[in-house]
Amino acid sequence: MKSIKLMLSFLLVIVSGLFLSACGSKYKIRLAEVTHSVFYAPQYVALELGYFEEEGLDVTLVLTSGADKTMAALLSRDAQIGLMGPEASIFVYNGGQKNYAINFIQLTQCDGSFLVAREKIDNWDWDMVKGKEIIGGRKGGVPEMTLEYVLKQKGYDVGQNDPTKEVNVRTDIDFAAQGGAFVSGEGDFVTMFEPAALQLEKDGHGYVVASIGKEAPGIPFTAYSTTKEYMEKNPDVIQKFTNAIYRAQIWVQNHSAREIAEVIHPHFRETSLDDLEIVMQRYRDIDAWKVDPTFPESALNKLMEVMELANELEKRAPYDKIVTNKFANEAMKNIGK
After folding, report:
1. Ramachandran class of 85: left when φ > 0, alpha when ψ lies in -120 to 50, beta otherwise
2. Which end of the chain has the smaller Cβ count within 10 Å, N or C?
3. Beta-sheet strands, E only, within 124-221
């Protein structure tokens, strides 16, 4: 009898352990990010403050370097969620993909690049770009398209790799090589993201004179998306992910640039804490981050307008197909500010 009781007790311990293990298990998410950038600060806040874990998610970041590669990771099921420009989901939908990507969180609401000049200019005026050459990035990339949009909105005759135009935008230099090309003497101006723009200033090679994002607000520069198939099969996971990002968005809005820098610094050790604070303040000053996870129709329309003006979009994608605010609205309803 005693041995039976011991055996039952032993089995009870095993079963209890298995139950606790199951309850403590987390959904594993491979999150493909288009680039590893301080511009996406709320994401790293969510990671560092444990918001994903508290929602029962085990998130692994995967650097996919480019919207095309990020989208490929989603479509091939190598990643469950992708952070990239929504233009990728437009192209995929228009291409006839049945398992297309759906955007469910807008993270940033403007371009994150800055215009850098060779000399410090105290009284900046956009007329100073007339007759000049700007290293603008990859043709068809949203940073380059937004730069062209800003220039054309100001009435300038813009050309790509055409010095006969009023403003010549160079698109023949790889994104990663823009800073080096500028330092070596190419171009009169260059567009750079942070902290690269700040580093050019510190090295005495250039000076930030304007924010591209400030000149073209309301553009959904980056958003989280997943495939239609994954969203239909795992709505609970998408909701948990949205909850975590929304909590991070709230936290970012309620804390200083220094506090944001301190939290995300483990992800950007190559940048000093003081420099990271400066960068965070620059992005706060241009309202770079969305204050909630919703993705407005006006934002998608603005992006498609920019793409059309750059002759990179022949047909608009339907908002109600490639965007949903279902999870964003649910998160906002249940999570207080």
Report:
1. beta
2. N
3. 132-135, 158-160, 167-170, 189-192, 207-211
> Cα-Cα-Cα-Cα dihedral of 84, 86, 89, 95, to 10°?
-120
Q: Go through the domains of the chain in sequence order and give each one's CATH number.
A: 26-110+219-334 (3.40.190.10), 114-215 (3.40.190.10)
The sheet carrying 132-135 orders its strands as 158-160, 167-170, 132-135, 189-192, 114-117, 207-211
Closest CA to 307 of 221, 230, 248, 206: 221
Q: Which of 19, 136, 153, 30 is nearest to 83 (CA)?
A: 30
Cα distance between residue 264 and residue 42, in whole Å: 9
Query: Measured in whole angstroms, how far is the alpha carbon of residue 315 from the centre of its chain?
Result: 24
CA-to-CA distance for 266 and 263, rounded, in angstroms? Answer: 7
Q: Hunting for tokens 């823009």 — which residue is that? A: 178
Give the three-class secondary structure for 178. Answer: helix
Count of other CB atoms within 10 angstroms of residue 214:
15
Place of tokens 């929304």: 246
82 beta partners: 32, 225
pLDDT by residue (tens digit) across 125-161? 999 999 999 999 888 888 999 999 999 999 999 999 9
Give the DSSP H/E element, type plus range, for residue 224. Answer: strand 222-227
Residue 285's contacts (CB-CB under 8 Å, 6 or more residues apart) are 211
SS3 of residue 135 by DSSP = strand
CB 222 within 8 A of CB 40: yes
pLDDT in tens, 17-43: 333 333 457 899 999 999 999 999 999
Mapped onto helix, strand or coil, the DSSP state of residue 61 is strand
Structure-token pair, residue 292: 């909630």
